[in-house]
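Example for tutorial group B:
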């Protein structure tokens, strides 16, 4: 069985990481081990929506981080322990004294992430009124779908708080999918 890059082998940490990944948050796990002790730093942050990148709000979003420090003895049957956790923001930081406070802070980051994604997402009315070619990972998979279908996709992703944005040329970008409008008028 292949170990996940986001796994710590500490059940409480892995539950928090699973919650963060469910919200679409960015998770990094750094591990340092010696003969008797494994130290892991788990850093959870909000991905900055494309519409906010390079702005003051984007820098404030990127500054919201929960950082947790876990240790686990290398002897068989040992349990992991939360040594410390901190919630960082651009205005300061706050120590999280309990495991529940750390889990609640990650959940709050998830709610904030969904709100920022929803605010930055295009509205269904912003979709170009034309057929759209669908590209997945740079390869065209469908020659054309109606604008109404793309509007439904934008609406549902916006409602869920998932990341979706619109390029200047009208292309809707969602994860690895691109919905490119097929304009019949080349000057448009």
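The residue assignment follows.
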């Amino acid at each position: 069985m292949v170990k996940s890059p986001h796994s710590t082998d500490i059940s409480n940490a892995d539950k928090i990481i699973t919650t963060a990944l469910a919200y679409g948050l960015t998770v990094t796990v750094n591990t340092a081990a010696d003969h008797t002790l494994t130290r892991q730093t788990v850093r959870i942050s909000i991905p900055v929506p494309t519409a906010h990148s390079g702005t003051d709000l984007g820098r404030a979003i990127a500054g919201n981080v929960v950082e947790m420090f876990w240790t686990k003895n290398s002897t068989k049957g040992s349990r992991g322990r939360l040594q410390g956790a901190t919630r960082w923001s651009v205005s300061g930081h706050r120590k999280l004294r309990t495991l529940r406070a750390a889990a609640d802070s990650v959940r709050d980051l998830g709610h904030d992430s969904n709100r920022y994604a929803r605010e930055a997402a295009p509205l269904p009315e912003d979709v170009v009124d034309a057929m759209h070619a669908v590209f997945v990972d740079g390869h065209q998979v469908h020659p054309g779908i109606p604008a109404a279908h793309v509007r439904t996709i934008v609406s549902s992703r916006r409602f869920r708080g998932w990341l979706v944005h619109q390029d200047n040329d009208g292309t809707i970008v969602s994860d690895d999918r691109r919905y490119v409008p097929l304009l019949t008028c080349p000057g448009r």
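The beta strands are 26-33, 37-45, 65-73, 80-89, 92-96, 132-136, 139-145, 165-166, 172-174, 177-181. Compare this with the pattern of hydrophobic and polar residues in the output above.
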